[in-house]
Every structure is written in C-alpha cells, then in structure tokens.
Write a structure and sequence with these properties.
Layout lengths: L2 H8 L3 H9 L7 E2 L5 E2 L2 H15 L4 H11 L7 H34 L9 H7 L9
Antiparallel strand pairs: 1-2
Helix pairs in contact: 4-5
Length: 136
C-alpha cells in the first residue's frame, strides 16, 4: 500500500510516517517500479504499536526501546516491565503536579472578589515571582 493509504488506515499524518521512518522507528518500505513507497501489513502493525504507545504517553525513546524488545519475542518481559514501570512513575508525578496546580488555581479563585482587575488577586498572584504554594 502507498503512504497515503497507510496514513488513512492508521490515522497518522504522512509527515509523521516519514518522520518515524527517518528516525528508524519504522523500517523503510520497499519501493515500487515507479519509486513509490510500498508498505505492507508489518508496517501497519508497527505503526499501530507506535501510535498506541505514544497515545499512552511513552516518549519516543521508550517507544524505540519497546519496539526493540518486542522484536525479540523469546526474551522474558522483565525489560518491558521496567520501561512501563518507569513510565508509570512519570505519570504519577504528572498527576501529582497537576493536582498541585489544580489546588493552586482553586485557591486563587477563592481569593477572587467582585472588584476590579487592578484589585484582582489572581492577576496579583500571577505577577508575583513566587506563587503562595511554592516551597523555598
């Protein structure tokens, strides 16, 4: 199949497919006599793996490692577990960061009154070098 069909089948932009090829995540396909890229089912499966991994928030480096591990199907999955565990730690940290952000925004909104922008506590807090909840 041509690149446009692969893009359509996987919901991936053509530019993204070319990027994954150039970065080595997706192997270069064979070429037709007319020099068009000729993708097969293995390309679609690998691209689906990449897209799903990215949708779950894995970095390109982690996706590369997961693909390397997936290519050696006889190995134990301990290394895959390590990559996923490290990602889970990063996700938990992001959740903690977002929770703190939510709390800070909620506090700012509680301090907001019906006054003017010049008296607005949110504007004042955003202009401050440190937010009230910052440590140190």
């Amino acid at each position: 199949m041509r690149i446009g069909e692969l893009a359509k089948q996987t919901g991936t932009k053509v530019e993204t497919i070319r990027y994954y090829e150039s970065s080595g995540l997706l192997p270069e396909p064979a070429r037709t006599q007319a020099n068009y890229r000729d993708y097969d089912l293995s390309h679609m499966e690998r691209l689906t793996f990449i897209r799903r991994s990215r949708a779950l928030g894995f970095t390109l480096e982690s996706v590369r490692e997961l693909l390397r591990l997936a290519d050696d199907s006889e190995d134990p999955c301990d290394a895959v577990d390590e990559v996923a565990s490290a990602h889970l730690v990063a996700v938990d940290q992001k959740i903690a960061d977002l929770t703190a952000l939510r709390e800070e925004l909620s506090l700012m909104l509680q301090c907001c009154g019906d006054g003017t922008v010049g008296d607005c506590k949110i504007v004042s807090a955003l202009a401050s070098p440190r937010l009230p909840g910052d440590a140190g």
